[in-house]
Write a structure and sequence with these properties.
Strand order of the largest sheet: 6-11-10-7-8-9
Helix content: 25-40%
Number of domains: 2
Number of helices: 7
CATH superfamily of the largest domain: NAD(P)-binding Rossmann-like Domain
Order of helices and strands: EHEEHEHEEHEEEHEHEH
Length: 243
């Protein structure tokens, strides 16, 4: 059994650790978009494959017997490539996706189908400070809005267009409620914009928004490729791989 694990998430690192502990030959592949990423145990490969054809060629050349996609829920392009490559190389694919967040009593959420749609909702909202946690690659969608002050949290500095009124906050999760409350109060945040990433590492911002009575714009996840079913937990993915 030889596993290629497309990773970058906490679930991917957890799965890699279990597989390595069981003596499975596993290589974790990271896209290389983040400086100093958290590395899993075992062999690590950093960088792209050159699209689905390149990934399929890698699977064949390296004798990979199982492909796992445990990338971020919004990495739709990587997932599409994984589905195509697995089919082309006749390698079974396991997709691991943590569940999205669900609203609770006291939440004031508005769902947006895309980051662009979220930007339109922000532009139509009253002027004020917006905590933006969608990542540096999505800042361009908000770059034409000069009515709001964007407090944008990201791991690495932005390299593209940014809003005229912009405060970067370079930080990496996990985050806790106390810190999130301090961040929102310190910047006078009146609106939170986030992707529906799910998981416990970054959920504290939603808890803080609920505690402060702040509205939240939640960007929906891109749909999975047709016919693809995801495992929700590491245990489910492990059972599918080893079962």
């Amino acid at each position: 059994m030889r596993v290629l694990l497309l990773g970058g998430t906490g679930e991917a690192r957890a799965l890699a650790a279990v597989l390595v502990a069981r003596g499975v030959d596993v290589t974790s592949s990271l896209a290389g978009r983040v400086t100093n990423p958290a590395l899993p145990v075992g062999a690590v490969r950093i960088g792209g494959f050159g699209g689905p054809a390149g990934l399929a060629a890698y699977l064949r050349a390296e004798g990979v017997t199982h492909l796992v996609d445990a990338t971020h829920p919004f990495a739709a392009g990587i997932t599409a490539n994984a589905v195509t490559a697995a089919s082309g190389a006749a390698v079974p694919l396991t997709l691991l996706r943590r569940p999205g967040w669900t609203g609770r009593d006291g939440d004031d959420w508005t769902r947006a189908p895309s980051v662009a749609a979220a930007a339109e909702l922000v532009a139509a909202s009253p002027p004020g400070a917006v905590l933006l946690t969608t990542g540096r690659r999505d800042l361009a969608a908000f770059a034409d809005d000069d009515l709001h002050h964007y407090v944008a949290r990201m791991v690495d500095p932005p390299t593209g267009p940014t809003p005229p009124r912009f405060t970067p906050v370079l930080d990496r999760g996990p985050y806790d409620l106390r810190g999130e409350l301090a961040l929102m109060r310190g910047h006078g945040v009146g609106l939170l914009v986030t992707k529906d990433s799910g998981g416990a590492l970054t959920v504290a911002k939603l808890d803080a928004a609920r505690a402060l009575g702040l509205p939240v714009i939640v960007v929906d996840r891109p749909p999975l490729p047709a016919g693809v079913v995801a495992c929700a937990t590491v245990d489910e993915a492990l059972a599918q791989l080893l079962g």
